[in-house]
Write a structure and sequence with these properties.
It contains 15 helices and 24 strands. The chain is an alpha/beta fold. The chain folds into two domains: 170 residues, Glutaconate Coenzyme A-transferase (3-Layer(aba) Sandwich), CATH 3.40.1080.10; 241 residues, Glutaconate Coenzyme A-transferase, CATH 3.40.1080. A seven-stranded parallel β-sheet has the order 4-3-2-1-5-7-9. Strands 11-10-16-21-23-24 form a six-stranded mixed β-sheet, with helices on both faces. A hairpin with a 2-residue loop joins strand 23 and strand 24. It is globular and about 75 Å long. The protein starts with 9 loop residues before the first helix and ends with a helix.
């Protein structure tokens, strides 16, 4: 059967990219690295290629992007919706930038033409019997980018799992296909520290049976997952799926029986983890990968009962303003889905949100601040913050005035910083704070 796909080498495929194009590069752990390497080589040889804008978002790469090298600074401009490790230093040096937008709203930028997409570079599974390939672990922005792009160039890669849902395309719809055999990046499961285990226990105690989970990435979310082993009838509607949820799925603790939206199915927009996770996902009809505009839509999230949103952050001030994207003036990552799920959980019947972090940095610096560090971005506003959790406890800021919030936040700060925070709070809030002793 002639399916119309045009197979060619990576070097031939990237010749389809022209000066002035806006190019989307798939993310998660599925960056099409062979195509990027070929594109960099072409740019080094073809001095006529210039002014190419490269869109990227949440991703975990093996190495810095080959497009981020001094010789190519006038060829490619990195425009990231979530600054990943592959472009972080390049953007910090001023050779690229970050476009602020809730991740769930980026597809709208593509679809309404605000951010033009001429070319999409993606990493796909082998085709099924109908000639359909899957984007595997990255439906997120890939779904909308492929929909909007005039030119779609795909790596056809046996290492990519076939995942049901939005992230599929027929071979005949590809402009070009390149056969590769390139393993996905594997992200080691973060083993929680003793302090992170304490945080996980505080959160798990507040999660009821039948809850629908949104769980972030890292040691603290994994600590929460570990503490849920005695729960029943949990559901999963999340942006990112990791290895941490595998034991809950395999033991039937996550059975999605109490969900309103897609009951019986686990829902995610992207995945990152080990080869074991990718193999588990391959062809699994119980796990559906959806466009991030759908998974992160707060009004869809809110339709599930008891939504529990669990995310990490970098620092919080005494009033509950949360920074999760920057370290001072330096952009470290992006908003992702934190805001969407914080809001969605607040509209869910019985829903709660948890913003969790260790009370100090690895260097012993305080992460609960009188005011946020200069330049730090507010990802979750104080008007939305619900539970804040450190290794010293969990406090609920919902319905609390600013002075009450300051008292609660100080109670979960590292003890060595509490006296200083008390002085700052007394000066800022006066008698309203002092009367709470």
């Amino acid at each position: 059967m002639d399916i119309g796909v045009k197979y060619m080498s990576a070097r031939e495929a990237v010749k389809l990219i022209e000066s002035g194009d806006h190019v989307y590069v798939q993310g998660s752990t599925s960056i099409p690295e062979i195509l990027l390497e070929a594109l960099a080589e072409r740019a080094l040889e073809d001095k006529d290629l210039k002014d190419v804008t490269v869109y990227s978002a949440f991703a975990v790469a093996r190495r810095p992007s080959p497009l981020c090298q001094p010789e190519l600074k006038d060829v490619f401009f990195q425009d990231s919706f979530f600054v990943s490790n592959s472009v972080r230093e390049w953007i910090a040096q001023g050779y690229g930038s970050m476009t602020p937008r809730f991740l769930g709203e980026v597809p709208e930028l593509f679809r309404d033409g605000t951010c033009r997409v001429d070319v999409a570079l993606i990493n796909c599974s082998l085709p099924n019997e109908e000639g359909v390939v899957s984007f595997g672990v990255s439906a997120d922005l890939a779904t909308s980018a492929v929909e909007c792009a005039d030119c779609v160039i795909a790596q056809i890669n046996p290492q990519v799992p076939f995942t049901p849902g939005d992230a599929t395309i027929h071979l005949s719809q590809l402009t070009a296909a390149v056969m590769v055999d390139d393993p996905l990046v594997e992200v080691p499961t973060a083993v929680p520290t003793e302090k992170e285990i304490s945080i996980g226990n505080y959160i798990a105690e507040l999660i009821p049976d039948g809850a629908t989970l949104q769980i972030g990435v890292g040691g603290i979310p994994n600590a929460v997952i570990r503490a849920l082993s005695d729960h029943k009838h949990l559901g999963l509607h999340t942006e990112a799926m990791t290895d941490g949820v595998l034991p809950l799925l395999e033991k039937g603790i996550i059975d999605n029986s109490m969900k309103t939206v897609m009951p019986g199915k686990s829902v995610a927009s992207l995945a990152l983890g080990s080869r074991a996770l990718y193999d588990y996902l391959d062809g699994n009809q119980d796990i559906i990968f959806k466009d991030v505009a759908w998974t992160n839509n707060p009004f869809i999230i809110a339709q599930n009962p008891k939504v529990m949103s669990i995310n990490s952050c970098l620092e919080i001030d005494l009033t509950g303003q949360v920074c999760a994207d920057s370290i001072g003036k330096k952009i470290f990552s992006g908003v992702g889905g934190q805001h969407d799920f914080v809001y969605g959980s607040s509209r869910s019947e019985g829903g709660l949100s948890f913003l969790a972090m260790l009370s100090t940095t690895g260097k012993g610096l305080n992460k609960i601040k009188p005011v946020l560090t200069e330049g730090a971005g507010v990802v979750t506003t104080r008007f939305q913050t619900n539970y804040v959790v450190t290794e010293y406890g969990a406090v609920n800021l919902r319905g609390k005035n600013l002075a009450e919030r300051a008292r609660l936040m100080i109670s979960i700060a590292a003890p060595e910083f509490r006296e200083e925070l008390e002085r700052e709070a007394a000066e800022r809030f006066g008698r309203a704070f002092l009367r709470l002793r």
